[in-house]
Amino acid sequence: MALEVNDTNFDEVVLASDKPVMVDFWAEWCGPCRMIAPFVEEISHEFEGKALVVKCDVDSSPGVAARFGIRN
After folding, report:
1. Which residues contact 58 (CB under 8 A, 6 or more apart)?
2. Consecutive H or E run containing 3
3. Is 56 a catalytic residue?
4. Which of 7, 44, 49, 59 yields a CA-CA distance of 20 to 30 A from 25?
5. How confident is the model at residue 53, as a pLDDT?
6. Positive or negative CA dihedral for 28, 41, 71, 56?
7. Is the pTM of this model over 0.70?
8. Cβ atoms 57, 30 nearer than 8 A
9. What's the average pLDDT block by block, 10 residues per block, for the chain (72 residues)?
10. Domain spans of the chain?
11. Of the residues 30, 43, 51, 70, which is catalytic?
12. Residue by residue, what is the 3-state secondary structure of 24-45?
């Protein structure tokens, strides 16, 4: 299962990880985000223990979104 990250824990979870990390920046209102959500979950299961898959809601974590140039 993909972990949820936010402005508070992003650095601790993502940047400090000793494994490769895939970040899915998403928003509730984003149709394409909802379409790929099942694939993100599938990837998280497939790479469990080898890589970290996280999801970051850009609406509730605007700081992280801004740091990485994610726009809505």
Report:
1. 25, 26, 27, 64, 65, 70, 72
2. strand 3-5
3. no
4. 49
5. 98
6. positive
7. yes
8. no
9. 95 98 97 97 97 97 96 77
10. 3-67
11. 30
12. EEECCCCHHHHHHHHHHHHHHH
Which among 3, 22, 27, 33 is annotated as catalytic?
33
Cα–Cα distance measured from residue 59 to residue 50, given in angstroms and rounded to the nearest whole number: 29
Give the CA-trace dihedral at 7, 46, 48, 30, to 10 degrees: 10
pLDDT of residue 14: 98
Inter-residue contact 10 to 20 (CB < 8 Å) = no
Residue 30 known to be catalytic: yes
Distance CA 7, CA 50 (A): 24
Four-way CATH pick for 3-67: 3.40.30.10, 3.30.70.100, 3.40.140.10, 1.20.1600.10: 3.40.30.10
